[in-house]
From TrEMBL:
The keyword DNA damage does not apply. Residues 124-135 have a biased composition (Polar residues). Keywords: Lipoprotein, Signal. Residues 1-24 form the signal peptide. InterPro entries: TAT_signal. This is Lipoprotein. It comes from the Bacteria.
Amino acid sequence: MSSTAVRRTALAASAAALALLVTACGGSSDDDSAAGDDKAKAERSAPAEGAGESAPAGKALTAAELEKVALAQADVKSGEVATELSADDQVAKDQISADDKACLPLVYVQGAVAQGEPAADVQRSWQGQTESPSESKGPDGQDMTDIDVNKILLNVASYADGGAEEAMAGLKAAVEKCAGGFDATAGGDKMRVTEVSGGDAPKGGDEGLAVNIGVATGGDKSGLMKLVVVRKGATLATFSAVNLSSMMTGAEFEVPADVVDAQVAKLG
């Protein structure tokens, strides 16, 4: 059965498959590859326009101001930041529904859609992978590499008149009310959430929330998604994270903390 969660991992699956092909034969990397990696790291570390800026406290920001404090490539040491969501990841708010309206805030986070009525909001995505030696061997006995692919969809929204606090309260209530699961539709894709539970709240900001989401992936199988929400003043940052392996197996995974920390730091 199709679901928004599975659709979002399609690109990550392609990236993993490609990486597996080029890393299947282990051993030391050649000099050209190493030089390319060093150059890429240097480019990511170079200051970008708007990098390092933080949000003014306690005021609703404009879209232009949010663009300056939203995650940028220069803010992270690994992975790739996109300033626009891909066509597969984009979903309009009016295309999202749930059989229990109390659960809608969670689906909005999954879709990188702003809660309530923000003064302005922007979206970002981040995708990265880590590689480690595999315990298994290839068909000819060669060393293999395990690929771990993560993807995060972000929304950074600013609110007037206490809207950010209200949105956070709605999310906290949703975690309690929707613990037993619910059915949702996003962009035409039907999704069955099997369970909802709270996690360890992130550090930083004025309020934080972490949520574990079980998503039916076919038959009696369930994958795992994680949501993270941080409020700083009148600004709300939401993160919807998936791990390729965990979406297929339901196994535990860690949300890349450096990505969350980088975005929260820019909120001031």
